[in-house]
UniProtKB/TrEMBL annotation:
Species in which this protein is naturally found: Lindgomyces ingoldianus
Protein name: Trm112p-domain-containing protein
């Protein structure tokens, strides 16, 4: 379960729907896994406005990951321009400008898309209900008395 997913999950219990403390769900006893993936700056740029930044920072801190900046990065900070001399150009006259992912983009990609909760539980801050995470999948099925 990618950490990005936690940005969209809230407690499934009906009485928690109106409580602000039911979001985000807090990971506990989590076994993390890094699943490497190619960086997609366009995806990150489109996701930035949808992220609940303060809640994401809280989750990252609870998991003991390197902390994120106080404020969300600007979409323009995800790419940086570098100069590159093409292979075989011994004169250096054909310098090209290329855009590469910035360190900010790499760090955000690592947290959101490569860091996964393999095992553990997600706990509601309102009612304390625990949702088990097994093999990277959270179980949101509720027992009959909580539906």
């Amino acid at each position: 379960m990618k950490l990005l997913t936690l940005n969209f999950l809230t407690c499934a219990i009906k009485t928690c729907k109106t409580s602000p403390s039911s979001f985000p769900l807090h990971p506990q006893d989590s076994e993390l896994e890094i699943v490497e993936a190619d960086i997609n700056v366009l995806f990150l740029r489109n996701m930035l406005p949808r992220l609940m930044w303060n809640e994401l920072r809280l989750i990252v801190n609870e998991l003991g990951l390197p902390s994120l900046p106080e404020t969300a990065p600007d979409a323009s900070s995800l790419l940086e321009t570098k100069l590159q001399v093409p292979e075989g150009d011994t004169t250096g006259l054909n310098i090209e400008k290329i855009e590469v992912p910035s360190q900010v983009a790499k760090d955000l990609h690592r947290v959101l898309l490569e860091t996964c909760i393999r095992e553990g539980k997600l706990v509601c801050g309102n009612c304390g209900h625990e949702y088990k995470v097994m093999e990277g999948v959270a179980n949101f099925l509720l027992p009959g008395h909580l539906v």
